[in-house]
Every structure is written in C-alpha cells, then in structure tokens.
Amino acid sequence: MEKIAEKGALDKPVVGLPPTHTITLRVNGSEKKLQLAPWVSLLDALREYLHLTGTKKGCDHGQCGACTVLVNGTRINSCLTLAIMEEGNDIVTIEGLAKGDELHPMQTAFIEHDAYQCGYCTPGQICSAIGLISEGKAKTTEEIKDLMSGNICRCGAYTNILAAVQEVWQKEGGDINE
Ligand code: FES
Ligand code: FES
C-alpha cells in the first residue's frame, strides 16, 4: 500500500507558522519587548516568555484567581486578557511588590497571619487583596470576603487570609464594621 508520506502530503506544512507581533509590556517597572502570537494570554506571556512564574495558572478559565495581577492598580485575571491588549499598561506581578529586601505590607501580613498552606493561590490572593484595598469598595468584613471570593484557596486558609487583609486594610484607614 502506498504511504501518504511517500506522496509528499506530509512533507509540507498544512498551514504556515502563526503570525507574531512585536509588543512591549511594562512589567514591574521595566519595558519588555516580546514577539508573540496575538492570542497569547497575559498569563502565558508572563510565565512562559518572561519567566515570571510567581503568577500561577490554576484553571486558565477565569474561575480560580490564581493568575491575578495588577494592571494600572486594578486586579485582573491574567488568563482572561491577551498580552497584546495590555501594551502601554502598568503591569505588576507578585515579583514586583517588594522593594529590594523590604516586603510589601500585604506580603508581611500574609506571613504573620499564616495565610497560606501550599502557597499556590497566594500570589493571586496578595495581588487581589492589594487591588481590593486600592479600589476602596469594601466597607465591611462581609464585603472583603465577597470581593475576595474570586480567589479560590484549595487549602482553605480563608480565615487567615481575611485576617491578613483586614490588618492591612485597617492600617490604611479602613474601618471594620462586622
Ligand atoms: S488561572 Fe486565571 S482565573 Fe484561574
Ligand atoms: S494555600 Fe494552598 S491553595 Fe491556597
């Protein structure tokens, strides 16, 4: 029987290589030039191209919050946005929060309150907590819980995460109403 390969049918690519674009992302204060296909998510650009693996991939479908980063100070699920859409924006990942050896107050609070177990959700939880406070929407403990509800923790460290967020929130002028 004649093989398909002998006809040359498999010698040529069926389609050409995907087109890529040169894009520049501002991540943690530095400009990074990347050559990306237009459908690469911000999450994959951070992890696979910039090797910033602090941002975690959980569901890749906007349902777990593990991939949360800050864009212009607002938290977003980086799996749900395309890298190409974030050109010109100020992207901050967990790697960009500490100033040298000095941790961000939210990182310190998570450590002090034991707000993690395996730690997989932690970068997203911390970015989300920082975004929550800067958004200024929470007025009560229930609202903090509600606004953090997009960040799933399989280990169930929610009580300690809440304590950490409340501490920083109060230090920044938040008034806890139960
Ligand atoms: S990986 Fe983005 S929300 Fe789960
Ligand atoms: S600490 Fe393990 S998933 Fe949250």
Automatic annotation (TrEMBL):
<keyword id="KW-0560">Oxidoreductase</keyword>
<keyword id="KW-0411">Iron-sulfur</keyword>
<keyword id="KW-0479">Metal-binding</keyword>
<dbReference type="GO" id="GO:0046872">
    <property type="term" value="F:metal ion binding"/>
</dbReference>
<dbReference type="InterPro" id="IPR036884">
    <property type="entry name" value="2Fe-2S-bd_dom_sf"/>
</dbReference>
<dbReference type="InterPro" id="IPR012675">
    <property type="entry name" value="Beta-grasp_dom_sf"/>
</dbReference>
<dbReference type="GO" id="GO:0016903">
    <property type="term" value="F:oxidoreductase activity, acting on the aldehyde or oxo group of donors"/>
</dbReference>
<keyword id="KW-0408">Iron</keyword>
<dbReference type="Pfam" id="PF00111">
    <property type="entry name" value="Fer2"/>
</dbReference>
<dbReference type="Pfam" id="PF01799">
    <property type="entry name" value="Fer2_2"/>
</dbReference>
<feature type="domain" description="2Fe-2S ferredoxin-type">
    <location>
        <begin position="21"/>
        <end position="97"/>
    </location>
</feature>
<dbReference type="InterPro" id="IPR036010">
    <property type="entry name" value="2Fe-2S_ferredoxin-like_sf"/>
</dbReference>
<dbReference type="GO" id="GO:0051537">
    <property type="term" value="F:2 iron, 2 sulfur cluster binding"/>
</dbReference>
<keyword id="KW-0001">2Fe-2S</keyword>
<dbReference type="InterPro" id="IPR001041">
    <property type="entry name" value="2Fe-2S_ferredoxin-type"/>
</dbReference>
<dbReference type="InterPro" id="IPR052914">
    <property type="entry name" value="Aldehyde_Oxdr_Iron-Sulfur"/>
</dbReference>
<protein>
    <submittedName>
        <fullName>2Fe-2S iron-sulfur cluster binding domain-containing protein</fullName>
    </submittedName>
</protein>
<dbReference type="InterPro" id="IPR002888">
    <property type="entry name" value="2Fe-2S-bd"/>
</dbReference>
<dbReference type="InterPro" id="IPR006058">
    <property type="entry name" value="2Fe2S_fd_BS"/>
</dbReference>
